[in-house]
Structure formats: C-alpha cells, structure tokens
Amino acid sequence: MNDLISRIATNVGIDADTATKAVGAILEFLQSEGPADKVKEMLAAVPGAEDLIAQAPSGGMLSMGGVMGLGQKLMGMGLGMGEISSVAKETMGYARENGAGDSIDEIVASIPGLSQFV
User: Fold this and answer.
1) Residue 18: which residues within 8 A CB-CB, separation 6 or more?
2) Cβ pair 84, 74 in contact under 8 A
C-alpha cells in the first residue's frame, strides 16, 4: 500500500493523505460497479486494498452513481480532472504490474465511461 501511495504522491503531485483517500474511492467504486470475480483478482494485486477502501470518504447528500459519482467524490477532495485521471492510471498500472492485467482490462470494459480515465 505504501508503495502505491508514495508513487501517486510523487508522480501526481498530491499529498499522501489525499492519495490514500482517492485510491480508496477508486477501489471502492470498482468493487461496487465491476464484475466481482475480476475485481477480487485486481484487489488481490494491490496490497492493503481493503484498508484503502475503508479510508474512502463517504458519498454525501448530492452523490450520484457511476463514473460521474466517482468524479464528483474525487473533485470533492480537491482533485482536478488531470489529477483524477493520473491517480486512476497509476492505480491501474500498479495493479497491472502486480499481475492483474487481464482483470483490469475486463473491469474497464465492463464499466461505461471508465476507459476515458484509465
């Protein structure tokens, strides 16, 4: 977990706390929206994934679903569109590097609109 968060903080230019919450929100979103078996494989490739998900901020009153809801949550953390895309790409890249490449492809293909961010 620390490797991923450090990597995102360095490469995206955000603080570790924001990186932790953002990755948690992305993983939580994938867990709720993606195919369960593939998401389980991907989460296994991200050490500390369950801890990250537990640190994701809750939705709030105006929450919407899907990719737009995730974007709203991440923007609420102060991230811009470029940072959101970078965090998503770093997170998925990390999971790919740790053996979840096929699962990532299937997850992205199964969630409408997700491919534009990763």
Assistant:
1) 77, 78, 79
2) yes
Q: Match 């995206």 to its residue by tokens.
A: 12
Closest CA to 117 of 31, 30, 57, 56: 30
Tokens in use for 49? 């994934």
pLDDT given at position 59: 61
CA distances from 77 to 98, 107, 111 (A): 27, 24, 23
**58: DSSP letter:** P
The DSSP element (H or E) to which 11 belongs, if any, is: helix 2-12
- Distance (Å, whole) CA 56 – CA 47: 16
Q: How many CB atoms lie within 10 A of CB 5?
A: 22
pTM of the predicted model as reported, rounded to 2 decimal places: 0.92
Residue range 87-97, pLDDT digits in tens: 999 999 999 99
